[in-house]
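Data card: per-record layout.
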Amino acid sequence: MTTMLHALKHVSRRAAAALSFAALTTTMVACGDDDNTPVAPATQTIVQTAAGTPQLSTLVSALQAAELTTTLSGAGPFTVFAPVNPAFSALPADVLTRLLETGNRAILTKVLTFHVVPGRITASQLQNGQTLTTVEGTTLPVTVANGVVTVGGARVTTADINASNGVVHLIDGVMLGSLDIVDNAIIRGFSSLVSAVTTANLTSALRGGNLTVFAPTDAAFAAIPGGAPTTAAALAPVLQLHVVGSRALSSQLTNGQQLPTLLTGANLTVALAAGRVNITGPRNTVQVVTADIVAKNGVIHVVDNVLLPAAPPQTITQTAVATAQLSTLVTALQAAELTGTLSGAGPFTVFAPVNDAFAALPAGVVSRLLETGNRAILSKLLTFHVVPGRITASQLQNGQTLTTVEGTTLPVTVANGVVTVGGARVITADINASNGVVHLVDGVLLGSLDIVDNAIIRGFSSLVSAVTAANLGTALRGGNLTVFAPTNAAFAAIPGGAPSDVAALTRVLQLHVVGARALSTQLSNGQQLTSLLPGGTLTVSLANGGVRIAGPLNSASVVTADIVAKNGVIHVIDNVLLPAPALGTITQTAVATAQLSTLVAALQAAELTGTLSGTGPFTVFAPVNAAFADLPAGVLQRLLETGNRAILSKLLTFHVVPGRITASQLRNGQTLTTVEGTTLPVIVASGFVFVGGARVTTADIEASNGVVHLIDGVLLGSLDIVDNAIIRGLTSLVGAVTAANLTTALRGENLTVFAPTNAAFAAIPGGAPTNPATLASVLQLHVVGSRLTAAELSSGRRLNTLLPNTGLTVELFARTVRLNGPRNFATVVAADIVAKNGIIHLIDTVLLP
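The structure for this 849-residue chain is written out next.
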């Protein structure tokens, strides 16, 4: 439609005005069902036809004003439902005049294009219940009854006036169904309302939805005591009070009906008496003087007065300041610099702790919360008491969860008429404010504070300093943890003082943290708790109503239990637990293990010792020296060559899995994703564990950054066909593949390669080809596009190679496999070298295409 309207801008108005009435006579078609007399095709466009029709002079003026004559002179075809002059005359006073004003051209265009349907639709094609999509975009309903056709409520009075680019049907009404509420207000002269809507930035709102608008006249706006508001903020609530969020025709209004408006919390009440409709708002009553102006997005009822909203209540901040029980909360809001936020637009729902709730916090907590350095914690705490939106007590339901401004959810419980939120009881509900609602609660909600926050506000300064020095702040803010938190006195009593070395301090702190939430009621006598320190297990003892925690070297008593935090629970203890001497890293563990000297040499050659000395954790399946010794001759030596570092790295990282996985966690059928990226299959059978085909001979060698399992084989499953060719010394094949630019192809998926030995290449009559294309043909003859083990090669089987239209035929002689090519044959001398992407079979001759 945009293109169509753009084209209209260049129409010649003089051409349209010069059209003659004679054009109409050529467009009229009137014939009976049996009239086969040919009718000359219409030669006049729709615009020319309209210009020549006296009944359509007003329409022509409108088309010219909207600059639409070009479109309706275009190729089309169009079907136009053309209002006759009396239809325009029947519009309310001055509507036509305003439509023709230059400033309202967009509205006029909407009206006129709503009368135009793409395509040529004759009266005989119009069906009852049909809907037509107009050029404007809105649909037109069609009704056919008793021989009368109505379209959009207007009756077709003359049908099927043919034009060269379409057909015209005269109708007895102007269809305004494409105009929204704002358009109607403009053309019907509600200038004060339109101006107010514009100032209040509500135009878009009143063009959308499905609304009912009680529209005050200009005189009503002029009569507002003290004059109409002039600012957007002041005008918006007045206008919102006049808008209901659903379409309500006057016939749908009932006496006493409550109509919720767009002004939050404000309803209108309907009164029907003596044929009148009165609408009562918070402060005054108005009368509907004109009902049921139907718009595209709703309905307008004209009223004789402007409804006035209730005097605005105070903001949440002002409400809190005026409430004596909330003085501590006000102080906290000021300290957190949140008074401005809670004076903003909102709406918010605030669960406001009374002074007694703050007083009930442990000694020193409030004063620390109010310290400038703890503003972020205080802000986190206070915004946890605030929920977006206005939620009254009647809207709170048992089992409901509320998402706070801070982001954490609040659980709601309703039982026996008592409402609790986050464990605090609502003692006074529904204190309304201009930007929300306040509910007084009898407790301060601390559920948004994590373990570190709690340690800070509860005065565990030594613990907090240690956590900061060890860079564990982030770790203790995440997860779901249990922390046994030593008091300041406990830190002061450490023999020789707290460790100053970061690594040593980290180990001490990790021993106090368990990676799961365990309330005191969940602890049992003799229970083993796995701490974040590798190998650092804590043992629980319950006796005489007390809880004692034993570590590797000493024990501590729980003096305060169950300080619940957002990410876990804190139990305060009277001693600092000390860890056993530190474990070495995986690299250090390997260096210290005589059976792993070859692995250490490989790690050094691949420059991976630093990686396996890192944080991890890692699980390493470590091949013992004998496993490397079992590799084919020369393989280890080639792996250690500098030029093959990438292959060696690929092989070694295939032995490493992220995370700490003990032998007891390995399950039959499990697959492990390695650092290299390829997966390792696990088999557990008859008490043995196999990983990637290698047997675990010694399990669970603990390291500071993971765990090591010794295995009896080197895992080669991450190496592809090219990698295998390199480390197995097939230099001639590798050189040929490189020269023929086939390296990428041989790293692809699921191949079988019949790989000639170096001696086979040396024996090619006349030497190996030097032309890359010829060499590629030779090599492609040795590659099959699927994975085939020797057991799958049967006598007479035809193998399709990567060389187009050329295959190999298998022959079996006793235990010998021979491959017949186009010109010669080769014998498999070593079968089933399994690679990541296929299988290699060594052959004694280069097959020739």
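Known properties of this structure: The chain has a mean pLDDT of 92. The longest strand covers residues 285-295.

See the next section for split statistics.
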